[in-house]
Amino acid sequence: MRVHIYPTAHELAEAAADYVATSIKNTKRPMTLGLAGGSTPRATYHRLAEAAVDWSQITLWLGDERWVPHDHSESNTRMVRESLADRVVARLVAPDTAFGEPGDAAAAYGRLLADVFFDGRPDVVILGIGDDGHTASLFPASGALEDDSGIYLANWVQEKGVWRLTASMTLLRSARELAFLVQGEDKARVLSEIIDDGLPHPAQRVASGANAVRWMLDEAAASKLRTIRR
């Protein structure tokens, strides 16, 4: 586990974009990049779209998606398109949320991803965390936490009363590298519980079983850490 702390959210976004761009430049084959939704990574994607890298062999995919149409204001696909995918020549594959049932859509997307991943594993995956410790759409006490029936799952989130589609814990743990981007004081408590105390929040469970994990934090998010030298 590597922990990197940056003075501001702006510097965090710049560093995260540089990290991904360097990973792309260093790859010698087609590469996959898993993208987080939510507000934190948007600034990173904007900067990444301006990076001088060869996007032609990069496939972008989503770590999770809300069960809404792609033109909906809460759609992760829409955010990713607007901030990154429509501004570069990379291929974007996204789950189909327009028709059918969540379970069918998740299974179809899982089959698509299985054909995309090199040797069956994602390369770099960007993740965030919520103030409840969730990551992707693996929420506390939700069924997907214990579901290994597929690499992509439909997850009913009781506290929100919604369906989410999400990469499974097994899939995220199999990635060659996970990068958690975390900003804001509202994440400080749960981040300390994950990094200092090892409490089994979903994000901690994913990270603890992963191959290589990079935590990229702004000072506000890192403000309650006790075991990391700053």
Task: Name its key features.
10 strands; alpha/beta; 7-stranded parallel beta sheet; about 230 residues; about 30% helix
Could you write a compact summary of the structure shown?
The protein has 230 residues and is α/β, with parallel strands linked by helices.
Can you describe this structure?
It is a single chain. Helix 2 links the parallel strand 2 and strand 3. This protein is globular. Helix 1 packs across helix 2. It has a single domain, classed as Rossmann fold (3-Layer(aba) Sandwich), CATH 3.40.50. The longest helix has 18 residues. By secondary structure, the chain is of the alpha/beta class.
User: What are the secondary-structure elements, in order, as H or E?
Assistant: EHEHEEHEHEEEHEHHE
Q: Describe the global form.
A: globular
Mean pLDDT: 96
Distance between the termini: 15 Å
Main sheet: strands, sense, barrel: 7 strands, parallel
What is the CATH C-level name?
Alpha Beta
Number of domains: 1
How many individual β-strands?
10
Tell me the layout of helices and strands:
Blueprint: E1 2-6, H1 9-26, E2 31-35, H2 42-48, E3 58-62, E4 64-66, H3 76-83, E5 91-92, H4 102-116, E6 124-127, E7 152-157, E8 162-167, H5 169-173, E9 177-182, H6 188-195, H7 202-208, E10 213-218
Parallel strand pairs: 1-10, 2-3, 2-6, 3-5, 6-9, 9-10
Antiparallel strand pairs: 4-8, 7-8
Helix pairs in contact: 1-2
